[in-house]
Write a structure and sequence with these properties.
Shape: globular
Largest sheet: 6 strands, mixed
Strand content: 25-35%
CATH topology of the largest domain: Rossmann fold
Radius of gyration: 18 Å
Number of helices: 9
Distance between the termini: 31 Å
Structural class: alpha/beta
CATH class of the largest domain: Alpha Beta
Number of strands: 10
Number of domains: 2
Oligomer: single chain
Helix content: 25-40%
Strand order of the largest sheet: 6-7-8-3-9-10
CATH superfamily of the largest domain: P-loop containing nucleotide triphosphate hydrolases
């Protein structure tokens, strides 16, 4: 386990319930700078809820969430201010349909971070070029494929250079032929040193990209370790049972 004092993200004893039904049951997680941590597990295991709690989109019932050593789960903390250090991309693209791709990407730097309109648009064009969509800057979301929309969503999350990137099943709503283009971009971000926590069902991608894999079941991290250890020699029966679905 990474030292919490040097972690970008440190989660301690995180508990979250819905209507008295526990969804997260004592989660501990540390993420070091430049590390890619991948969350795997069946639907309903708590992966998405964990990411939403980290991004302060859900109130937690117990535990702590520390970002660079600061307890952002403290009720006195301004959640909007804390979120400025995090970029989150969801399963659905959540783009503003009445805005062009460029306007979607440029919005947060201007409104949240105080950049001028010209600065925000320049940054937006740089990021669209980075995700391979320089020629789609003036396109509206309904003129983009699902893969293109998700790449715009990634560009938007990167627009203010977040300390931590949270990716929640970002390929689950895509047609199979579009999954590769989005995962390729995430792989590039990982290779460039981005600190990422990602929930995914793409096991081959997790095996290739993750520094640490965490298997969640019933709201708990049942097992965590390197990608090689988890996929080649899992120690827990429940982990082996889950991975058998993907290896036959």
């Amino acid at each position: 386990m990474t030292d919490p004092a040097t972690s970008v993200l440190s989660v301690r004893g995180l508990v979250k319930s819905y209507r008295d039904r526990p969804v997260l049951d004592g989660i501990d997680l540390d993420v070091a700078e430049h590390q890619v941590v991948v969350l795997i597990g069946a639907s309903g295991s708590g992966k998405s809820t964990l990411l939403r709690c980290v991004d302060l989109l859900e109130e937690i019932d117990d535990g702590q969430i520390l970002l660079d050593g600061r307890d952002i789960s403290d009720p006195r903390v301004d959640a909007d201010e804390a979120r400025k250090a995090m970029g989150m991309v969801f399963q659905s693209y959540n783009l503003f349909p009445h805005m062009t791709a460029l306007a979607n990407v440029a919005l947060a730097p201007r409104v949240v971070h105080g950049a001028s309109r010209a600065q925000a648009r320049e940054r937006g064009r740089e990021l669209l070029a980075r995700v391979g969509l320089a020629d789609k800057a003036d396109a509206y979301p309904d003129r983009l494929s699902g893969g293109q929309q998700q790449r715009v969503a990634l560009a938007r999350a990167l627009a203010y250079d977040p300390r931590l990137l949270l990716l929640d099943e970002i390929t689950s709503a895509l047609d199979p032929e579009l999954v590769g283009e989005v995962l390729s971009l995430v792989g590039e971000l990982a290779g460039a040193g981005r600190t990422i926590v990602m929930a995914t069902h793409e096991m081959a991608f997790a095996r290739d990209v993750a520094d640490v894999v965490c298997f969640l079941d019933g709201g708990r991290i049942i097992e965590s370790g390197s990608a090689e250890q988890i996929f080649v020699d899992p120690r827990q029966d429940r982990t082996r049972q889950f991975l058998r679905r993907f290896t036959g």
